Amino acid sequence: MNKQDFINKLRNSGLRPTKQRIKICETLFNTEKTFHFTVNDLAKIIHKNFSENISLATVYNTIHAFKKKGYLKEISLGNDKSYFDTNVSSHHHFFDTKTNELIDIDLNKIELKNIPSPPKGKSIKDIDVVINIENDSQ
Question: Which residues pair with 93 in a beta bridge?
Answer without folding.
Answer: 104, 130
